[in-house]
């Protein structure tokens, strides 16, 4: 039934505002990576200390997604989106002026709350500002923005840091954010305040936040200490606490009349299929960007900006395919489009796994990167549309929030899990071949220990150090390090292929060919 939404003359400008907010919020998850070397010098600190500039955003972002989604459903998505946007802009300005690392860490956490509100509610706002086939097209465009934003960090961050310094990666959000605020106020239509007669589920908010925090903090701790056992109390304690808290959260929510999250979401095979795909997308594709960036910068030798330019091979497909997915999704079953698109990505990972070697260059990688880009460009927009199908208007914010939570959780799990796979293969090769370089045993043990401590991402800096260059074993050691890294990188690509295949099976087996009530409505 047409409620007049499609007669709103400025709906595409509203989509532009929501897309800008989503782009800024997701870009800031990755854009800081390229600025870390400059920040190390600016704050006279170490990479380990700076890790919380990244982790603070990741943690608070994931924890806030469901809470901001629920508040939007209850009190009006435009209000919460706008408040989140203003908070994000203010925090960005503070981060750019941060006089100390502590201020920057706190600012990043505050910024993440704003980013979570923008990203969790943009999808629901699009769904409520559009109807019929235009809704699919609009969600497809928003999915394109999601797809390109995560891959644009090295390109945009590299350019800004190189020409304007690290504060510019935060300052750039201020003018863009002000424009977005004005456009949101003028063009975005508000949704009803469905929670006028509801009580805020404080217990649900506390339990969901504590559970997600514990789970992701445990994964981050494991990532920071790859040689710790999973049974190490600092790791297992947080993970177990997170799982227990989330189980309690589900039990509590199932008994409340007005819960924060409707557990009936997870009784529907279709919705389960969409969140599994979201997890696979995060774990398989978005986390792989971290490893691909390290390969291109640390081992092939491209600058951050040059790496970002080459990664357009992946991200450009979101711009090309995103707007088309609305048309394709109306003509063909979304479950099949998503399922088979994920298999295309699996082939891309296999191509990269086969291409990685001592002489690898972009010429060897681009065919696989194109296939991964096609998957990203197809799946993200279709997933957004499929996730909204069959969802009551008052719960669209929570549905989009859950998709974002699983996508973010998948990214974190992928970075940690693939990192452990890479570390294992890397260390195995070093242990088996470093002794064959002709070095004295004591020297080989020392270099082995240093390489293992540095890990696959930074091992090249030791192999190409000035001290090692003075020895007759330098060339042999470098060849071993390169091959060790290649073994690990190939293993990561193969694992990513497995993850997206699992996502494909989930899409084809669990998702349904649903049609929303207004599916045939158009102008």
TrEMBL record:
InterPro entries from the UniProt entry: EmrB-like, MFS, MFS_dom, MFS_trans_sf
Task: Give the keywords, sorted.
Answer: Cell membrane, Membrane, Transmembrane, Transmembrane helix, Transport
Task: Tell me which stretches of the chain form a coiled coil.
Answer: none
**Mind telling me which residue stretches traverse the membrane in this protein?**
12-36, 48-68, 80-104, 110-130, 137-156, 168-188, 200-220, 235-252, 272-292, 312-330, 337-357, 363-383, 491-511
Q: Which family does it belong to?
A: Belongs to the major facilitator superfamily. EmrB family.
Can you name this protein? Permease of the major facilitator superfamily protein
Q: Where in the cell is it found?
A: Cell membrane
Q: Does the keyword tRNA-binding apply?
A: no
Q: Where is the Major facilitator superfamily (MFS) profile domain?
A: 14-515
GO molecular function terms noted in the UniProt entry = transmembrane transporter activity
Instruction: Look up and give the organism this protein is from.
Output: Lacticaseibacillus pantheris DSM 15945 = JCM 12539 = NBRC 106106
Matching Pfam families: MFS_1
Q: Which GO terms describe its cellular component?
A: plasma membrane
User: What is its membrane topology?
Assistant: Multi-pass membrane protein
Superkingdom, natural source:
Bacteria
């Amino acid at each position: 039934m047409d409620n007049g939404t499609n007669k709103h003359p400025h709906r595409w400008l509203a989509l532009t505002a929501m897309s800008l907010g989503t782009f800024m919020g997701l870009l800031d998850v990755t854009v800081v990576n390229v600025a870390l070397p400059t920040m190390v010098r600016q704050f006279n600190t170490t990479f380990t200390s700076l890790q919380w500039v990244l982790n603070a955003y990741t943690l608070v972002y994931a924890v806030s997604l469901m809470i901001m989604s629920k508040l939007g459903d209850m009190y009006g998505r435009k209000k919460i989106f706008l408040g989140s946007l203003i908070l994000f802009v203010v925090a960005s300005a503070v981060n750019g002026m941060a006089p100390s690392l502590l201020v920057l860490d706190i600012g990043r956490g505050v910024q993440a709350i704003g980013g979570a509100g923008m990203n969790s509610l943009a999808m629901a706002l699009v769904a409520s500002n559009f109807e019929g086939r235009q809704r699919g097209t609009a969600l497809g465009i928003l999915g394109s923005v999601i797809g390109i934003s995560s891959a644009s960090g090295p390109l945009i961050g590299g350019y800004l840091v190189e020409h304007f310094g690290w504060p510019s990666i935060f300052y750039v959000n201020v003018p863009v954010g002000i424009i977005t605020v004005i456009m949101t106020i003028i063009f975005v239509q508000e949704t009803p305040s469905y929670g006028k007669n509801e009580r805020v589920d404080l217990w649900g908010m506390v339990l969901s936040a504590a559970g997600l925090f514990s789970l992701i903090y445990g994964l981050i701790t494991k990532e920071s200490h790859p040689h710790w056992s999973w049974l190490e109390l600092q790791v297992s304690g947080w993970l177990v606490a997170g799982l227990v808290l989330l189980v309690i959260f589900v039990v509590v929510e199932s008994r409340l009349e007005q819960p924060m999250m409707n557990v009936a979401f997870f009784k529907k095979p279709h919705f389960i299929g969409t969140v599994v795909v979201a997890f696979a997308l995060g774990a398989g594709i978005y986390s792989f960007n971290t490893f691909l960036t390290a390969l291109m910068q640390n081992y092939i030798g491209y600058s951050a900006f040059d790496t970002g330019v080459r990664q357009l091979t992946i991200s450009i497909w979101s711009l090309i395919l995103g707007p088309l997915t609305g048309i394709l999704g109306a003509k063909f079953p979304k479950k099949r489009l998503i399922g088979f698109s994920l298999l295309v990505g699996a082939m891309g990972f296999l191509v990269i796994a086969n291409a990685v070697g001592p002489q690898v260059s972009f010429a060897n990688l681009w065919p696989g990167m194109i296939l991964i880009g096609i998957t990203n460009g197809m799946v993200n927009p279709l997933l957004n549309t499929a996730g909204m199908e069959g969802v009551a208007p008052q719960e669209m914010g929570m549905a989009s929030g859950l998709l974002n939570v699983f996508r973010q959780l998948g990214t974190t799990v992928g970075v940690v899990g693939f990192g452990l796979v890479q570390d294992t293969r890397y260390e195995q090769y070093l242990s088996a071949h470093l002794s064959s370089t002709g070095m004295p045993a004591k020297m080989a043990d020392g270099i082995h220990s240093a390489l293992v401590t540095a890990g696959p991402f930074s091992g090249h800096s030791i192999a190409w150090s000035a001290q090692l260059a003075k020895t007759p074993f330098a060339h042999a050691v470098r060849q071993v390090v390169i091959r060790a890294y290649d073994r690990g990188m190939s293993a990561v690509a193969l694992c990513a292929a497995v993850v997206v295949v699992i996502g494909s099976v989930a899409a084809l087996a669990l998702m349904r060919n649903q049609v929303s009530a207004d599916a045939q409505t158009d102008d």
